[in-house]
Amino acid sequence: MTFEQAKTVVLKYVGIWNAAYPATPLWAQVAPIPAGMHFRFNGFFILVNGAMFPESVVTTFFHEYGHAHYEREHGGGNVVDSEAAAIRSSLQLSTQEGLEELAFREADAIKQMAANEPYRSAVAKLNDDPLWRKYARL
Ligand SMILES: [Zn+2]
Fold first, then answer.
1. Gap from CA of 90 to ligand 1 centroid (Å)
2. Residue 60 Cα to ligand 1 middle (Å)
3. Cα 14 to averaged position of ligand 1 atoms, centre (Å)
4. Contact at 8 Å (CB) between 26 and 57?
5. From CA 72, how far away is CA 107, in angstroms rounded?
6. Is the whole-model pTM more than 0.85?
7. How far is the CA of 118 from the centre of ligand 1 (A)?
8. Which of the listed CATH numbers 3.30.2010, 3.40.50, 2.40.160, 2.60.120 matches domain 3-135?
9. What is the Å distance from ligand 1's center to 104 Cα?
10. H helix or E strand, kind and range, residue 124
11. Residues β-bridged to residue 26
């Protein structure tokens, strides 16, 4: 995957969001910052580290996109549920884009992070989720 392809995927989902939720718009920027971040105000802003591989830009964006979706629906909500939604989003959108290999890689990374909270509780919540079970090879 090239950086341009990664950018195309990110812009596609930004477009889907903005068509669906014009009152709470989403912006995304790929910039030199650690991993991914998202900010909520009267809309959402996702920042993804542009120094990563294009594949990581995509999965990180999908993860933050899941956080943004969850927080938009729940007016913030709680950290563990937000994390579970973010993990699921990354797996689901990777699958949707025909990037199953990325979903397996993402699940492996999450399994390693699951030694710590909030990932530990988020993964526990996903224990019966078919997508998580598939990509985490459970
Ligand atoms: Zn997260």
1. 10
2. 9
3. 18
4. no
5. 24
6. yes
7. 9
8. 3.30.2010
9. 17
10. helix 119-125
11. 44
Structure tokens, 51: 């120094």
pLDDT in tens, 47-103: 898 888 999 999 999 999 999 999 999 988 999 999 999 999 999 999 999 999 999
How many whole angstroms from 8 Cα to the centroid of ligand 1? 22
Cβ-proximal residues to 96 (8 Å cutoff; 6+ apart), any chain: none
Q: Per-domain residue ranges for the chain?
A: 3-135
Tens of pLDDT, residue by residue over 14-55, are 999 999 999 999 999 887 777 788 877 778 999 898 888 999
Which amino acid, residue 36? G
> 92 alpha carbon to ligand 1 midpoint, in Å?
15
Read off the amino acid at residue 12. Answer: K
| Total number of residues shown for the chain | 138
Contact of 68 with 38, CB cutoff 8 Å: yes
How many angstroms is it from 22 CA to the middle of ligand 1? Answer: 24
Output the CA 62–ligand 1 centroid distance in Å.
10
Give residue 38 CA to ligand 1 midpoint distance, Å. Answer: 9
